[in-house]
Design a protein that fits this description.
α2 packs antiparallel against α3 and α2 packs parallel to α5. It is built from 7 helices and 23 strands. The termini are far apart. It has a domain of 91 residues: UDP N-Acetylglucosamine Acyltransferase, domain 1 (3 Solenoid). The strands form 4 sheets. A 7-stranded parallel sheet has the order 2-4-9-12-15-18-21, with no helix packed on it. Strands 3-8-11-14-17-20-23 form a 7-stranded parallel sheet. It is elongated and about 80 Å long. The protein is an alpha/beta fold.
Length: 293
């Protein structure tokens, strides 16, 4: 298996050399012509123009290859690494490493280049997106709504490797008017609805569903297969285990731990199912007061 992975990597090193060579040609001819035909002050303007032309050609070349020759990624569990879907996944990973990561500061600072790059690579995004992260590998499985922002250094991974021989692919959907802050992690199968805020350095594990108008503050962790209802407020530094369900219109205080399989359906359940070293004594008193009412 490792030999096949090395072959994949070598093939993409060769592909990178080919892509860069093709993309350098227009800029090279522009600089050569400018040095011969233009006076000295005007020649200085040729170099940034040539670099922009190189980057645009690289985007169009990689996007064209992706659109015309590489099939769309499909959700499901695939044999790793010896299967066609896994090779397609390696192609997407290679496109990201050749284009998005080396030139991220330039591409993601320009709305046109960003939109053109991500759309040609297969991401389903509107022009009004606020994506600021190059750490995306499975473009075909990313669907982002209007006016949604994904912050810098956030890792969007619609895949997970299970053991040594399985690769699982699943889509990630983010609705309209939502914000995922920087340095977050969003894993495959996640569905984030409209007007959702996810704070800095929050981790969202696989197959989690976050409903409309919910706010999750910074430095939280949501386990796999969770459901967070509408208009829920989760404080900072909270940890939710796997398969946790939080019903609509509830507030989870900061520094809260909710164990696996818990169902939070009322404020009383917040007291029953959550634990915090800092606020445990106060919460026990609050629960007793609520129980006596």
């Amino acid at each position: 298996m490792r030999i096949l992975e090395i072959c994949y990597e070598i093939s993409w090193i060769i592909a990178a050399i080919v892509f860069y060579s093709i993309s350098l040609a227009p800029g090279y001819y522009l600089v050569t012509w400018g040095q011969q035909a233009l006076a000295f002050p005007m020649v200085l303007l040729i170099y940034p123009t040539a670099f922009f032309l190189f980057l645009l050609t690289l985007i169009l070349t990689i996007g064209g290859v992706k659109t015309l020759l590489i099939p769309e990624l499909k959700e499901g569990t695939h044999l790793y690494p010896d299967s066609k879907p896994v090779y397609i996944w390696f192609c997407n990973k290679g496109f990201s490493e050749i284009l998005l990561i080396p030139f991220s500061k330039i591409i993601f600072s320009n709305d046109v280049l960003k939109y053109l790059s991500l759309r040609l690579l297969g991401a389903k995004i509107p022009y009004s997106n606020g994506i600021s992260t190059p750490y995306i590998t499975d473009f075909d499985l990313l669907n982002v709504g209007e006016r949604t922002t994904i912050g810098a250094f956030t890792k969007v991974y619609p895949h997970i490797q299970v053991g040594k021989d399985k690769l699982v692919l699943g889509s990630i959907q983010v609705g309209e008017d939502s914000l995922i802050a920087g340095n977050c992690s969003v894993m495959y199968g996640t569905k984030i609805e409209n007007r959702v805020f996810v704070g800095y350095n929050t981790k969202i594990l696989l197959n989690t569903h976050i409903d409309n108008d919910t706010r999750i503050d910074w430095n939280c962790s949501l386990g796999k297969n969770c459901y967070i209802g509408k208009n829920v407020k989760i404080g900072s530094h909270c940890i939710l285990g796997s398969r946790v369900t939080v019903k609509d219109n509830l507030q989870i205080p900061e520094l809260t731990y909710i164990p696996d399989n818990a169902v939070i359906a009322s404020e009383q359940d917040v007291c029953m199912y959550t634990y915090s070293i800092v606020y445990q004594a106060d919460r026990e008193d609050d629960c007793q007061i609520q129980a006596n009412l």
